[in-house]
């Protein structure tokens, strides 16, 4: 667990991109999100998604991790595509008989659903690439530099730090229940899951009380110290601007 935690907090630090200023990566990610979500075609969001996936693989992220990370967005994109495909008007493509109902697929719905699904894929992969390439503490420090409300930054830091402790508590309780045959049968499994959820809520509340007391005793006044940013490197700024100009030019083609 400690090794897993370290791998998440300091992602792939050997890659050159992880040493680029986090503020520049946030700017690139935000601009790319704007370009992707405002695109009226499928090709540009799909190109951004392909570039982001390639970057994630270059950072050393395993395909299994990527599949797990993108499973929910892919499901949402698929549902949107199917809804548009069978609910829009226009020239019919094919007919599908399902449980006595006739579903007609339309060409306009396929195009519109494809555009929305491509935007979802492009936006999600951009955020994943920025997350994998930036240690979480640096990302929060960059958001604080951009004047994101300090309350949101502090809550995110606390949640990130103590989520792992809560996960460890959940593992301990789960394995104890499993060793006592707490998940044998559907009904018993549901009761065990309810007990596990209740225990985690109580543990989270107790931990919050203990953490608050400990931090106040150590002089916490509501302001967490964050990383100090080094001055911008002109070469990094130049390549950031060049990349954004190139992506904007590709989008306008």
Automatic annotation (TrEMBL):
Transmembrane segments: 43-62, 74-96, 116-136, 232-250
Domain of life: Bacteria
Keywords for this protein: Cell membrane, Membrane, Transmembrane, Transmembrane helix
Database matches in Pfam families: CbiQ (PF02361)
Membrane topology listed for this record: Multi-pass membrane protein
GO cellular component, one term: ATP-binding cassette (ABC) transporter complex
GO terms of biological process kind: cobalt ion transport
Localization in the cell: Cell membrane
Name listed for the protein in its UniProt record: Cobalt ECF transporter T component CbiQ
């Amino acid at each position: 667990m400690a090794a897993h935690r370290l791998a998440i907090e300091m992602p792939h630090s050997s890659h050159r991109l992880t040493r680029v200023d986090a503020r520049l990566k946030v700017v690139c990610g935000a601009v790319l999100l704007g370009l992707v979500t405002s695109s009226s075609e499928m090709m540009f969001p799909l190109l951004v998604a392909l570039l982001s996936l390639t970057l994630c693989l270059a950072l050393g992220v395993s395909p299994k991790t990527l599949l797990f990370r993108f499973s929910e967005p892919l499901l949402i994109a698929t549902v949107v595509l199917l809804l548009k495909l069978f609910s829009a008007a226009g020239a019919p493509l094919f007919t599908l008989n399902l449980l006595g109902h006739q579903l007609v697929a339309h060409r306009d719905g396929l195009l519109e659903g494809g555009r929305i699904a491509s935007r979802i894929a492009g936006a999600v992969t951009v955020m994943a690439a920025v997350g994998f390439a930036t240690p979480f503490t640096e990302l929060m420090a960059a958001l604080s530099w951009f004047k994101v409300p300090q309350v949101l930054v502090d809550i995110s830091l606390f949640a990130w730090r103590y989520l792992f402790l809560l996960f460890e508590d959940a593992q301990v309780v789960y394995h104890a229940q499993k060793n006592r045959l707490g998940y044998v049968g559907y009904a018993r499994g549901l009761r065990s899951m309810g007990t596990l959820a209740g225990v985690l809520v109580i543990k989270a509340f107790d931990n919050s009380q203990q953490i608050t007391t400990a931090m106040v005793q150590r002089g916490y006044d509501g302001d967490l110290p964050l990383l100090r940013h080094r001055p911008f490197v002109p070469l990094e700024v130049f390549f950031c601007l060049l990349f954004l100009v190139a992506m904007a030019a590709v989008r306008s083609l």
